Structure formats: structure tokens, C-alpha cells
Amino acid sequence: MAIPIIASKLTAPPVPAAYLSRPRLDRRWPEWSAGRLVAVTAGAGFGKTLFLADQARRHPGGLLWYSLDGQDADPETFCAYLLDGLRGLASAPSGGRTARPDPGAVSPGAEEALARAIGYLHDAPPPALIMLDDAHTLAGAPQVLQWIERLVRFLPATATLVISAREPLAIPATRLKAAGQAARIGAADLSFTAEETAQLFERRFPGTRLAGDSAHRLAELTEGWAVGIELFLQSLPDGSPETVSRALEQVSASGERWFDYFAEEVVAGLCPRTRDFLRRSALLPRLEVRLCNRLLGIRHSGRTLEELARRQLFTFPVDGERRQYRYHHLFRDFLRRQLEQRTPATELRRLHRRAAAALAEGGSLADAVALHADAGDHQEALRLIERGGDGLLEAGQHAAVERAFDGLPDDQFRRRPAALRVLGRLRDYQGQWREAESIYDRLVRRLPRGAERAELLRRMASLRLRRGEYETGTALCRRALRELGRRADPRRGEILLLLGVAACEQGRLAEGERHLNEAAALFERRRSDLPLIRIAYLLAANVYYPRGEFARAKAAARRALVGARRAGDAVEVSRAVGVLAFVTAAAGEAREARELATEGLRLATAFQHRHAAAFCRQVLGRCALLAGDLSAARQHLDQAQQFGDQAGETDLVLYPRLGRVELALVEGDPSRAAVLAAEALRIARAQEDALQEGQCRALLGLAERDARPRPASRQWSRAEEIFRRIGAAYELHRLLLLRLASGDVPATEARRTLRELLLGTGRLGHDFLFEILEPDRGALVAARALAEGVEPERARALLLRLGEKAVPPLAELARSAPERVRSQAIELLSRIGGRGSRAALDDLASSKTAIGRLASRAVEDLGRSPAVPLSIEALGPLVVRVGDRVLAHADWRSRRARRLFELLLAHRFRWAPRDQILEALWPDADPDRAHNNLRQSVHILRALLEPDRDRAGHSHYIVCRDEAFRLQPGEGYAYDVEAFERGLAEAEALSERGVRSPAEEKLKQAIGLYRGDFLAQSPYEEFAVAEREELRDRLLRALRRLLESEARAGRWEEWLLYGRRATTLDPYDEAIAAGIVRAHLRLGHRREALAAYQAYERMMIRELGVLPSAEMRALADEAAQLGARPTARGRARPADQTDGSDGGPCAAATRNATAGQSSLAARPAV
Question: Dmax over Cα atoms in the chain, in whole Å?
Fold first, then answer.
């Protein structure tokens, strides 16, 4: 629901012609407003609003005025108004007017709103001025105050926030004051002096003068209180000294009641019709002409209000078109007291109801509810809540709804089920789930059968499912469906959605899919987008993923992500990104999963979606595990598990634990892995989660396999039963691979199991189990299938793709298998090539048997190596050296030939099938043309590399065999990619042995080889993407390790050198960005530290719409404290705030404290 935007609240009030400008305040205003924050704090009636309106009128830059009231204590309302005004400010021309507000706005989440606000301010005409008037209405709104505090810390250098309030607000400003960036204007500043009081008198009574002693006495008696002086002057019939003297005596005699005394004098001097207008209209929260006409049953409210403003009777226009006015707060309170004292109770109640009705008709339901609640008319408040409470809740105006229920005894609800339902929803929104469920249950017992009962049962089911009570939640959903019967009702889709989730969580995937698809069909007919987004990622995570249908899972998650982005729903975007990252990681696509999870974590952290953030950390832990980065894996998994344990969220209690089991296995600690797996199994069984129980048993069996083979086999058998029962094909295939590789499958079942695994993985696209997740075990199983003749062509294809990982089991087959299998193994070794294959074939060739002769021929084929080895540099622009000849990028005579060479290079000297080459290089050409292109390209490439070769002779560099091609670099070749990888591996080995200094040197040497991205001159070739991204990832991980070493050693200059290089690879990585700020701080470079922070902040806001974390902002605060800051726009500081240090261009440091991390109540106030 859109929040209605009242334009006058975002318009600075006009300054009356009779306003007395005070030069002493005008002279100080440039000093006060030079910093980041101005706190104007004085009681009612000191002239804060008019003084600020006068400054706003003359302000040269962008201006946002925001008149606050009680409704703005709601965070959603506050953010909607502020963003609407700032959006107009960002599009306004220099000169400061804001664009006209939209009639309605939807407020985003707090973090997204803050990022948008800062982005708008960066684009606003400088200097930008934000004025929050009547901010004391936010005193009981800690969420809004916290948001304002963070806004202050993030304000650009060209912006100033002015907060006008009757009392100090709990917004910390200690750092700002210390840096000369916060000013305070108090009652002592705003109080009228005797001279100014005399000027007011002369304005009121032209041609007369107020005697000096009388001016001093009036200023003293009123304490310079502007409204008191004005009221005193309004009550004087003339300006004679005698009249003034008598009035001063009356002020002295009246004591504290003198305001009411003189206000009554002023009102008594008006005609009865005007008096009645003043008292009755004071009920309204704002004086809109149409509202006054509606309340009072008249048509001339506009003229009356204009006359009151003209006579300066504490009535002020708040918009230039004079359609809305306001009374001074004190005057309004006085008028309301008079109304209550002089009006019978029945008439007063009737007035309240008419005022509330007028407000409700104008769309101000929250104001109408508040009016009834303030009058103690809770029945009427409840009536309005029954009518529009749902809309208020959806608009985020929870405070207004809460206000209607405050102080109501329980018996008030007995005959008000609609109001009770709204109260239940309110408690649900507030996270008070058990109280919400109790309310829903009371209503279910009271209401007759039908759609309302169905909705309540659905809500109760949702609450139970959140707590993992699936059976109870399912039963409640079925009751809800019975309540609906056969009627077409939008609630049916929501109930089916819940049933689908519950069924999936209990392992009934087919049932869950059916329910979710039925719900989707209903929502599609009704064109309800957000539910369809949820269903898409629920299908991906709860149905397609456990089945192993990863292509469908990724497609559904991507569909959800696109829909969420189109809808602009940040919460759903972060959830969809997290699900897509999860299923991508499960499919072994670690690089893409890591990028998605990093994006999801960045969004979730910025928008404070802790569940989504923990989910993304769990995925990042999985990716780090696949990449062999065990330290990062442990860090991410521990953080995800910590949140899961705190929140009791099912998946995040178990999945990080399963990741830690795998981590312990990789580290070679099966005992610890078994303990962790047993703990996870107990949790999974208690939660009755079949899929996760099977996963726990599979890992427990793996951990116990060597120490306790029989219990391990039982665990695997039980896991297999579970996976088969629930249809979890992916987990079943992984388990079968483990069992086959470990020899846990009986000989009588081996052939059947092998066939099931090979056919199933081929059908569902699970080859990544062999190639990425379990390459060593996969090679053993594929070699066994080849030996036993089970799906031999499939086994051969897998072994060829496994490459060097397949060499050990193939060498064993070539030594000991039957002759038919041995010859196949030798042929595959020859096809795979490389040093490992060459060594295995050399060993076999020493035999005098037929197999030895076959191996000798294979060695001979491999040995047809060119006399001159190639030297290849592919990290950066491609450079190929053939002896003394150098082929740089510009030296290739044929683009086709160069692309073919690059493609073969991307295959790492392994065989590239002809069909893959044709598809990669000429995907749109007809087959004959594509084959002809390939023949020509091969011919040109061979001629380029071997210009002296006989055309009919054998090519040493480009080898063709069995419809496949391979680049043969020659013995002793040099390839910078392999040198880079070899250097990283050597550095890792030295580091594991504790030889730190040589490890760092080796790491630096390896990093030095990385001149640029792989085949940098061909950035759009798809065949190079995987290799390029993998190498970039390896470089980034190496840089991170090196940065850790440099930080430990305190070599901050070196840190900056490598840190800047790391940012070119991942500019969004906050850890690296924060490290650059920290390194500058350690070197004493305060300006550079702040500049680095500001550049990162601007990039995050403009490109991602989020802000840096609290930890990052704390570093900028640290930089701000190292020295004095200059004023934001080069203006002088107030003398009482100068700290005496030299400063520098550190424009935006103090906006980066760890906002929101501790209680606001404990902080010093502005």
C-alpha cells in the first residue's frame, strides 16, 4: 500500500511579512550551518520554525523542508516522505526548489532507503540543506532516530542536516562536535533581547517606542520567549506607556499562568464566530481548508484562516497556495483546552467523530484513528481499524494501529472480531508469534465456517511452519482448505503454497511440487507477481535441487531473481540470489556460485536481512571448500552456523554443520568429522528432515569408513534407502559414487549399480560429480566401468574429460586388466597426453609383449614433438615465441587461425573434439562451411607456426587424431599460465611447512607472472571464459594470502601496492577496500584514507544502491579523529567549536561510525 504524501509537509512555510529579521542570528547562521549537523533545541514558542524558514528562503542551494508530526514516528512513513523530498531535491536545478512530491510513495527497507537518500544528496545542488522541523515528535521512535543518526554520518560534504525540536534527541554527535561539524542553537540564542523586543513593539504599534526599562522588563518577564512577547503585544489595546505598564503588572501577578491569561484575552476580543472556528478547528492535526469546511459545515474556512494569518493570531500558512495552515503549538493546545472546558461531552464526542470522518474521507486514516484514540473513543478507533487496519499494516504504519489498541481491556474485543484479527496481524508483524497465534485461535473458535476462518487457519499454519512444526502446520492448512470448500478464493493459493513447503520439508517432493504448481496456476490467473516469485525459488530449493534437476533449479531461481528485480523488492532479490547461489554451488559451479553469493551477502548485509546473509555465507563456505581455501571455508561456515543456532532456522542449523564435516575430512581428521556428522544427524532426526538425515548419514559413513567399516556401510545403506524413497537423485548418485569407489557395493550388485550411476548422471547432467566434486573417486569408478564393460562409451568419455586425474587408474588397467581392456586404456592414455600419460606409457613400453609394443607406438606418437618448443605468454596479450620468431597479437595473418590457436590453448594441450571446435568458432554456419573453415584455419595455423614445413608433411605443433585436435608445445616448452599455477602451488607447500619468508617470495614471483587476464585481447570469446575466471580467482586468493602476510609484518606500503591490484579484480570486496583505508591510517595518510573510503562509498551507492558496513564506516571515523576537519564548504567554524588542529580536505569522515550497534539511550544527546 502506498503511503499518501501530503505536499505541504515537504514545503517550507512562507515567512510572514511582519516577521522580524534578527541580524545577530543571521550573522551566525553561516557558522552554524557550515558543518554536518545543526541542532536547534528550544521549547515551544521560541520562533524556531520562522527563523529556519527565513534561512531556508534565502538558501542558495538545494533545500528539503520536512514538517514532522506524530505519524512520522513510523519508520516506513518517515522514509517514504524523506525519500520523496530528496528525489525531488536531486532533480531540482541549482537554486534549491524541490520537485512536487508524488501523491503516494512506497518506502523501501531502512538500509535501502539510507543508500537512496545519500545517492540523492550526492546529486543535489550544493550546498544541500535538509530541515527537519518539529523533530521532538520522533522522541519515542528509536528506529527513526537511529536512521537519522546514520544519515548524519553518511551525509556528503556538501550537505547539512538541521534538526529542530523542543527537546534534545538521542542522536550522538560527540565525534561531530569534536571535529567542528556539529552546532547547537538553543533557547539562549533564540530568546529576544530587550532591543529586539522593542523592535517588535514598534512593528506592532508604528510611531511609538517602548521605553528601555519596559523593554528590559518585558524581555526579563517572558525570558525572551517569542510567542509570549507576541501574545503580550496582541493583548494590548494600544501602545501607550500606561497600557504597557498595567499589562506588565498583570504578567507579573499571573505567575506561570500568564500565557493562558493573555491568550484568553486575545480570543475574548474576537467575534463569536471566529472564536468558535478557532476552538473547533483546533481538533484537526492540520488546517486544510477542505477539512475545516467539512468539520464545521461551512464554506469560508479559507477566508477565515487567511484573515487569522494576516492578523498574526498565531496562524501560519504552510504552503505557498494557502490551502493549508497551522496554529502555533501552544495556541492550539490552549484552544483545545478551551474546547474541552466549554463544550458538553456529547457535543465534543460528535466533533471528534466529524473530524475523524473528515480525515478518513481524505485518506488520512492513521490521523483519524489517532484522533479517536486521543479522545478516549476507542470504539470509534476500533471501527476505523476494522475498516482500514489491514491497509495501515501493509503501509508499515504499525504505530498508528498500536495506538488504537493501547489501554483497551480484553472485553472490548469480544464482539469485534475484525479488530481482533488486525491485532493478531499486528502481533505477527511484530514477531510476537505465540500471542498472534493465540488471537487467531480465539477468532477461529468464534467465527462461523467460511473464508475468514480459512485465512486465520492459514496464518496459524504459517506460524507453526516457521517453528518447524510441519505436521501441525499441514493439518491447519488442510482445515483451511476445507473451510474454503470449492469457492474460488485467492487464499487457496497461499494455503497450497504452505502445503507445498511443508511436504517438501518432510521429504514428499512430488506432493510438494504438485501443491506449489497448483498455487502458481492460481496466482498466474490473478496476475499476482510476488507470490509467483516466491514459488519459483521455493521450487528451485525444495523440489528441483534435492531431485538433482539443477538446470530446472537454476532456471526457476533466475526467473525468481528477474521478477524480484523487476518488482523492486529488495528482500525477495536477496532471497532469490541466495537460492540461485545455493543450487549453482551444489552443481559444482563454484565460480558463478561465489559471485552470486557475494552479491547476495552484500545486499543482505546492507538491508539487514540476517537470514539471507547467513544463507549466502553458507554457500560461500561451500565454494571456498571446493576451491581448497579451507580458512575462508571455516570462517563462512562458522558464521552461518552461529546465526542458525541463534535463530533456530532449520537449514542454517544443519547445512553449515555438514560443510564442517566435509572440511574436517579434507583436513584429514575423520574422527572429528564423525563427531560432527553424528551431532548433525541427531538434529536432522529431531527435525524430521528426511533429506538432511540422508545427507548426514552419507557423510557419517564416509568419516567412519576406515575406522569402522561395518557401521559405515550401515549408514550408507540407510542413506540410500532415504534418497530412493524421497526421490533425491543427486544425493543418491553421489552416494553411489562413494560406495563404488570405496568397494562397499557387493560384487553381485556392482554392474547394476555402475549402470544406474552412469546412466542416471548422464540423463540428469550430473557429470560434475565426476569432474569437479569427486574427480579421484570418479576416475576410479569410470575405469572400473570400462574394465567391466558397463556403458563403455560413457566411461571412455568421462575418463577423457577427467584428463590427468584418470591417468593412475588407466595405468593400472593397462598393467593388469584383460588384453582388450589394456589396449583401450593405452589408447585413452595416448589421447589424454601430458607428462603423466607419457611416464605411464614409457613404463608399459619396456615390456616385450604385444601390449608393450602398443604402448611403444603410443609413446612414439606422443614423441613426435617439435624440435623447437613453444614459449607462450597468455596472461595478458597473447605472445607466442617459436625459436627466434615472435608472434604478437598484430602478427597473426588470420583471425580464424588465431582464434583456433586460442581455443586449443584453452584446452591446456588436451584433445579438443572437432564438434566442440566447430560449435565454439562457427556456431551459426552450416556444417559444410564450418568444416571447410576449420580445414583452412588448421592449414594457416600450421603454416604460421612452421613456415618451412612441407605441406604434405607431418605437423609437429597442431596434431589431429580421431576427429580431435591438440596443440603440441614440444618438450621443454614454457607456458606462463602453468608457471603461475606452479608458483602458487610451491608457495602453498612452503607455507604449510611453516617456511614463511620463502613462501611469500614465491607467492610474489607467481603474482608477478600475471601480466593481465587470460587472452586479454579476446575478452568476448566464450571458450576462454572459464579458464580466465578460474585464473582470476586464483590470483585474487593469492593476493589475499599475501595481504595477510604483509599486514602481519606491518609492511603497509607493500600492502597498498598489492591491495590496489586486488581491487581491480573485485572492486566490491569490502575487506580489501577496508584494508586500503586501514593501511593508509597505519601510514598516517588520513586524507588518502578518507578519499579511499569516500570512493568506495560512492561506488556502492551508485552501482549497487547499498552502503558500506558498520565496520567499514568505523575506519572512516578513526581517520576523522586523527586530526581536525575543515568546514564542509570552506566556511569558518564557530569559535566555540574549533579544536585547534590544522585539518585538511577530509570532507565526509564522520558519517561512518558503527551506527546502530548499541543502545541509543546510552549515548550523549545533541
Answer: 137
Residues 369 and 307 in one domain: yes
pLDDT at 262 over 80: no
Domains in the chain, number: 5
pLDDT value for 464 = 84
Alpha-carbon distance 174 to 1055, whole Å?
Answer: 32
Whether 786 is in a domain gets the answer no
DSSP state of 1132: P
Same domain, 207 and 317: yes
Element spanning 317, H or E: strand 315-317
Cβ pair 874, 905 in contact under 8 A: yes
Report the pLDDT value the prediction gives residue 1120, as an integer from 0 to 100.
66
The answer on pLDDT for 795 being more than 90 is yes
What is the spatial distance between Cα 400 and Cα 410, in angstroms, rounded to a whole number?
19
Q: What are phi and psi of 465, to 5 degrees?
A: -65, -35
- Give yes or no: residues 896 and 926 share one domain: yes
CA distance 1136 to 983: 60
CA 257, 258, 260: angle at the middle one, nearest 5?
A: 70
Inside any domain, residue 825: yes
pLDDT of residue 1146: 29
Other Cβ atoms less than 10 A from the Cβ of 44: the count is: 17
Summarize pLDDT for 880-923 with one digit per residue, the tens: 999 888 988 777 878 889 999 999 999 888 888 899 899 999 99
CB atoms within 10 A of CB 641: 22
Question: Buried b / exposed e across 955-965, counting CB within 10 Å, b at 16+?
Answer: bbbbbeeeebb
DSSP letters, 156-183, are -TTEEEEEEESS--S---HHHHHTT-EE
Question: Same structural domain for residues 153 and 243?
Answer: no
More confident residue, 854 or 178: 854
Model-level pTM?
A: 0.62
More confident: 227 or 270: 270
Distance from C-alpha of 446 to C-alpha of 427, rounded to nearest angstrom: 19
pLDDT band at 319 (very low <50, low <70, confident <90, very high): low
Q: Check if the beta carbon of residue 41 is closer than 8 Å to that of residue 186.
A: yes
Q: What region, left, alpha or beta, does residue 692 occupy, with left being phi > 0 and alpha being psi -120 to 50 degrees?
A: alpha
Q: What is the CATH number of the domain that holds 573?
A: 1.25.40.10
Q: What was the pLDDT predicted at 412?
A: 66
- One-letter amino acid of 97: R
Nearest-angstrom CA–CA distance, 361 and 587: 56
CB neighbours of residue 818 within 10 Å: 11
- CA–centroid distance for 702 within its chain: 37
Owning domain of residue 237: 198-373
Flag whether 401 is in a domain: no
d(CA 546, CA 504): 9
* Mean pLDDT, rounded, of the chain: 83
CATH code for position 43: 3.40.50.300
Query: In which residue are the cell numbers 604460421 written?
Result: 944
User: The domain spanning residue 950 has which CATH number?
Assistant: 1.10.10.10
C-beta of residue 1118 within 8 angstroms of C-beta of residue 1081: yes
Last residue of a domain, one of 793, 828, 863: 863
214 and 311 in a single domain? The answer is yes
Give φ, ψ of 948 to 5 degrees.
-95, 5
Examine the domain organization and report whether 157 and 290 are in the same domain.
no
The answer as to whether 1103 is a domain residue is: no
DSSP-assigned letters across all residues of 610-670:
HHHHHHHHHHHHHHHHHHT-HHHHHHHHHHHHHHHHHHT-HHHHHHHHHHHHHHHHHTT-H
With cell 477461529, the residue in question is: 444
- Grid cell of 1077 as nine digits: 583505508
pLDDT, position 556: 93
204 and 344 assigned to the same domain = yes
Chosen domain end from 945, 970, 995:
970
In DSSP terms, 880 is beta-bridged to 872, 887
Span of 101-105, 308-312, 428-432, 638-642 with lowest mean pLDDT: 101-105
Same domain, 210 and 165: no
